Amino acid sequence: MRADVAAPSILGVRHHGPGSAKAVRAELERLKPDVVLIEGPPEADPLVALAGDPGMEPPVALLAHAQGRAAFWPFAVFSPEWQAITYAREAGVEVRFCDLPAAHSLALPEEEEAVRLDPIGELARAAGYDDPERWWDDVVEHRGESGTLHAVAEAMAAIREGHEPSGTEALREAAMRRALRRALKEGFGSVAVVCGAWHVPALTDLPSAAEDERLLRGIPKVKVDMTWVPWTHGRLAARSGYGAGVASPGWYDHLFSASDRPVERWLAGAAAVLREEGLPVSSAHVIESVRLAQGLAGLRGRPLAGLSEVTEAARAVLCEGDDLPVELIQRRMVVGERLGGVPGSTPMVPLQRHLREEQRRWRLKPEALPREHDLDLRKPLDLGRSRLLHRLNLIGVRWGTTRETRGKGTFKESWTLEWHPEFDIALIEAAPLGITVDGAAAARARELAAADGTSLADLTSLVERCLFADLAGPLPDILQAIKDKAALDGQVSHLMAALPALVRAQRYGDVRGSGGLAAITDSLLARICAGLAPALTGLDDDSARQMVALIDGVHSAVGLLESDLWPATLANLARRTGLPGIIEGRIVRILFDADASVDDVSVRMARAMSSGNPPERAAAWMEGFLSGGGLLLVHDPRLLAIVDGWLTGLSAEAFVDVLPLLRRTFGAFAAPERRMIGDRVRSGAPMPANEVSDADDDEQAAGAVRTVLEILGRA
Q: Which InterPro entries match (predicted)?
């Protein structure tokens, strides 16, 4: 080292620490270095200039991706590294990254999580603290003094004595030293290094360059691409190479940005959040909560009230002991979920750039917190939003998830939108499929249709997804794949699993503007009806229950079509013998609900509950029949009488045998239904079937019938 070159200044920090960020900024302003080296991948050096773009809004992250692997280096405004970048940009000083290149770190095999020394925990115990986080907050985060950086570095040196780095950690520190030597060799008079405090001792006393070069020689390497991507506060812990977890990013952001009186400002903000929710919180509440927080800090010997103190004060005073408002403060302020942004000049694959254009076109802003959207597909704006979200789902970017729609109608959709930083990786991985979202989604649909492992049900579901996404291009290929697969698939259960999605696609085709599905649907339904009876023989209990679910799915789907084939098939099956009890009971219930012309259901139930049948079969029959809900027993005393008579007639041993089945059947009823059935039974013996008078029912219903006829204008 030349005589006119000062020794490098190694500033050890805790990543995403507001106190560390303030201390680093103050120390850099004092040192005025000629170059700043920051822990991070050197491939990102050309991207540093973008940090000064007005469109760059932390939290953001550097993303490196190569050969199906990716790594992130996140930055918040309160991250020491971000403040170092900001200082260097404003001071006109060169800034470089000095970690192991991502080209190497992404090529190395992933290491198992090693159990290593916790330096902060060791220092906290040495200082008499049982909570490492609290010790670090008291010593560094709540002070923000540059002198603490040197004290922490000395403490880390003592903790690291006897520790020999290995694996990726050794390679990273060797790469940092190589970058430091290069900067010194280039003649920079003053060099500042901002890195994790754990690495400070490794950069203070440099071993021979030959030793580091020997360690780094020959390590694997891949081609990587780097870019900036938006990040969120809630995911600041997702960092490559070390754990940088931040449990309270909103609180840390507040500590960094509050110019003075952070406790007072925080509790005043908490009061504002509660007032927005209609909770009565006065200025007196805020004053008393501040006093309590400061009093707790004094009792605990803390230089400033920390998050635990302000939370306890808010719970006791602002929330009056209620935990629900505390959870609101936790969600809105302590985590303070926020999604950053990157400028349009950031390097992106064409697919990412097209999505940004589509988001602006359809006025859908990515947000970190879940937001609900109710869409009316009759409106061009909402229809465009729906198509975009369905297309993104096809390429694996699940920005939106559908939820149950309020009301009825094929023109309504309800979505919950929540953006995750990992979606940028999915977009990059999908980039070879196309340069636009619709092009990539269509290519993905063709890939799925041609894949060997795609089942018939997957193919019919794919038709539905393409219709929702308004992708007509892949439909001929998918429909041909369905024809080919269905012709070779003799499993009736596979055909039944495939039919519902195909029927929905045919039904919604009128709204979405597609057709050509009716012939395939009719063919599948005909094959199902022809092969259903043989498929129901010889089934064990689990297979019978799976078949009941398939029958329900087909029945619901056929309800959207005009077909007499399925009801006739069920009616024929109901007259057969030898069906599993749960399947027979379910078929009878479906026909009963449809008012089909079959034998009286009470006769069928009495036959199934007769002493000639094993109790287990009778219980299974009841499970199948009553799986549609328990109100039937409330409103039809004949059926309740049959069930009650069968249950009371069981022997003790038989009752114990069928009890699990009965619990499963009646446990599925809603609580009000179970209560009403119990009330009917407790009020007296249910009316036997031969004592029920249809005339009584007609007389009781006459008033309601007249009212309905008057409403319909048919009185």
A: DUF5682, LolB
